[in-house]
């Protein structure tokens, strides 16, 4: 259901980021993606996007609150992070809804395994999940744990 992960190192300030190498592969494709941010050994954020990762991150770092979106909370608390990116299998018919469902399942696994929700998680959307979604979420957890 997902391909990846591709891994990047980020240097953070509250208003910008630098990546250790140019985004490529899954990160530059405009297909449904799941991404996980880990800082100080903990999952701080799990998100989804169809945008390239550079566009998505830029939006999260530069948001002003217009239309209710205030951007990412996690760059204000960390100076270094790892970014993991997975993309949906296009040939498997995976949709953004599938990726959003997996996102919620991964957030739940973080809560179950660590005792806390990701510290920078500001919202989550829940949808009915299948065994396939949960199995994929478990594979994501194993890749980042």
Overview of the structural elements:
There is one protein chain. By secondary structure, the chain is α+β, with helices and mostly antiparallel strands. The chain has one domain. The protein contains 3 helices and 5 strands, in the order E-E-E-E-H-E-H-H. It has helices at residues 53-62, 96-114, 131-144; strands spanning 2-12, 17-19, 33-39, 42-49, 80-88. A 5-stranded antiparallel sheet has the order 2-1-5-3-4. Helix 2 (96-114) crosses helix 3 (131-144). It is globular and about 40 Å long. The two termini are 19 Å apart.
Which features characterize this protein?
single chain, 145 residues, alpha+beta, 5-stranded antiparallel beta sheet, 5 strands, 30% helix, 26% strand, globular
| SSE arrangement, N to C | EEEEHEHH
Spans of at least 5 consecutive residues whose pLDDT stays below 50 are: none
Which structural class matches the secondary elements?
Answer: alpha+beta
Helix content: 25-40%
Return the average pLDDT rounded to an integer.
Answer: 93
| Integer tally of domains | 1
Q: Helix and strand layout, with pairings?
A:
Elements: E1 2-12, E2 17-19, E3 33-39, E4 42-49, H1 53-62, E5 80-88, H2 96-114, H3 131-144
Antiparallel strand pairs: 1-2, 1-5, 3-4, 3-5
Helix pairs in contact: 2-3
Compact description:
The chain has helices at residues 53-62, 96-114, 131-144, and strands spanning 2-12, 17-19, 33-39, 42-49, 80-88.
